[in-house]
Amino acid sequence: xxxxxxSFNSATSRTPELLCQFGALGHMPPSxxxxxxxxxxxxxxxxxxxxxxxxxxxxxxxxLPGDRIVLLLPTSPEFVIAYFAAHRAxxxxxxxxxxxxxxxxxxxxxxxxxxxxxxxxxxxDMPAAGYFSxxxxxxxxIAPILCFGSSDDEIVSLDVLMxxxxxxxxxxxxxxxxxxxxxxTSGTSGRPKGASLVQQAVINNTRYSNETLGITTQDTxxxxxxxxxVFGQMVLMLGALMAGAALVLVPxxxxxxxxxxxxxxxxxxxxxxxxxxAALADLATTERERASQxxxxxxxxxxxxxxxxxxxxEAFERAFGRPLHKGYGMTEVGxxxxxxxxxxxxxxxxxxxxxxLDFRVVPLADDSLDxxxxxxxxxxxxxxxxxxxxxxxxxxxxxxxxxxxxxINDDGTITIFDRRKELVIRGGYNVYPxxxxxxxxxxxxxxxxxxxxxxDAKLGQEVAAFxxxxxxxxxxxxxLADWCRARIxxxxxxxxxxxxxxxxxxxxxxxxxxxxxxxxxxPVATIAETYPTNTPQN
Length: 538
Hints:
Blueprint: E1 2-3, H1 16-19, E2 33-37, E3 40-43, H2 44-60, E4 68-72, H3 77-88, E5 92-96, H4 102-112, E6 116-120, E7 145-148, E8 156-157, H5 158-164, E9 179-184, E10 194-198, H6 199-213, E11 220-223, H7 230-243, E12 246-249, H8 255-265, E13 269-272, H9 274-284, H10 288-294, E14 300-303, H11 310-320, E15 324-330, E16 335-339, E17 352-353, E18 358-363, E19 371-377, E20 384-387, E21 390-393, E22 400-408, E23 414-419, E24 424-426, E25 429-431, H12 433-441, E26 446-456, E27 460-469, H13 477-485, E28 496-499, E29 522-523
Parallel strand pairs: 2-12, 4-5, 4-6, 6-7, 7-8, 11-12, 11-13, 13-14, 14-15, 27-28
Antiparallel strand pairs: 1-18, 2-3, 9-10, 10-20, 15-16, 16-17, 18-19, 19-22, 20-21, 22-23, 24-25, 26-27, 28-29
């Protein structure tokens, strides 16, 4: 099955009507709130002024259009200021999470060789902070560093440069087909790779998400996500500020801080990973008044970045009286592949694929024709990966395999079944880990579940499950195996299990399956087992 999407003309000529959306803010009265973060509120006029100062500082520092700038900044007004200023200067932005470790930073910085690194004193207690001390010899020769806020004498203060800079310098926008972002993947399958995105992809993504979510100047968007991640950056930050809406930032987002920000600012739209919504639902049972205040204007709660279990969706709607809608995206597509219609009740799928994308479903050899791997094509798709600092380009008409196994529903929406590489083939039978995980998550004592395939001499692969239980609960793995046996085909339930205090996750809350310790797995002898485990059953 192949569907033709639509796209803008991706010619290299600069088109003012489009470019004014990127690197420029939405048209709002100067006194309208643009950013709220803790006790700080910046109006659009104030934010524009600070962006102009930072733009001047970058240009006067010697940066030229096409130079690379690393933003190692937390979710904060400083990130927004530096991000928009960099794009006005025609720089290529590389946003990195301050939670990255020194080995990851060494690898990325030494391979990408940026012209400037911007950090913040507000993230001094984060893992990356020590990396940028003046004593770190590995930084020598990589790039100069500018710091928001106070810093030691060896690092130049960006605030001081902004105060001295000329805020009237003209912008130097990039062309529609020119690179503007390098976004590093989460690295769940190995070393992180930098996905190169052009300006057209960013504009298409923001236009699609804003139109689908119906974002207007009347909206307030709450962001507890890392702005270095494509979800928070594209859907929330760019979505809000290019539409002239208000953006509420929640740095160091934990459930209490998120709920406090909700009750204080009354957002109309918020987005977070499923684990955040699960924690909010738990907290709402003891913070009923704040929960009620927080959702008084809420018209949309959007989740993505990881599969949403029915239990989390039900718990959030029970606590806040609002349904959770789903989005589906990838770094390589600049974020959005599909979003649900937020004006209708949620469905089992994840919405319709963006009109800016062509798509096709390539069936598996041994599966039904309506299910297969999703492949995409269009101006939203990344140019290629930077591997060890060298761009491996893609052809513009080349189909991009997402690695996701999907089904196109009768109403045109898609349902995601699993990652193709995570498909477990047990004795010739396909087992989709997400299906087994969904059954495990229905159990009231299971908080998180990760299902993988492990090598088996007789069957090829065996189904294994790693579990994180609800705090204060205890259950035998054999009971959970029987729970699964009663709900799915006998060849699908996990014969190996491990209960862990905490499953490994990345900064956005997604379980990192490659970090699961397979040595913890133990065979599960279930009470109801009545046939040899090496004999597949229907």
